[in-house]
Sequence to fold (168 residues):
Amino acid sequence: MTVSKQDFRDAMARLGAAVNVITTDGPGGRGGFTASAVCSVTDEPPTLLVCMNRNATAAPALKANGTVCVNVVAAGQKDTAMVFAGVTKCSMLERFDSGTWATLATGAPVLQGAVVSFDCKVVDIIEKGTHLVVFGEVQGIRTGSVHDHGLIYFGRDYHPVGKAAAAE
Fold:
């Protein structure tokens, strides 16, 4: 049996995942994109992975900087996620006008109000098909309010999770 690209994409649209704004900063410049392909790898040392299209405009900066911050988007930050997904067609630097930013250990932008942010140094990048699998060793964590609600991507759309979803 052969699975077509479209069949695979349609099936993956049924796999709900957290919405994340992935950022980087350093000698390669500031960059960022929205991703749902993020997961933990190990807790010793604390490491996660992010999958990104190798042709993403943020890819060269991420590779050059060796830093990545995974900002798990709160339900109220949907507009920021859409900006970083490229929906508004603004420039890379203009994307950072959406949201308020700080830094932790690596200097990668940390989204204020995110459910949680994982500030990482890049320890490996593996190329697989159309994508890069970026492994980040966590250098710092900032957690948001316990009252923050998350945002998932499911069925090719954004949906709030938690009590915010029940209120809608």
Summary: The longest helix spans residues 5-12. Residues 40 and 48 are 4 Å apart (CA to CA). The longest strand covers residues 116-128. The two ends are 41 Å apart (CA to CA).
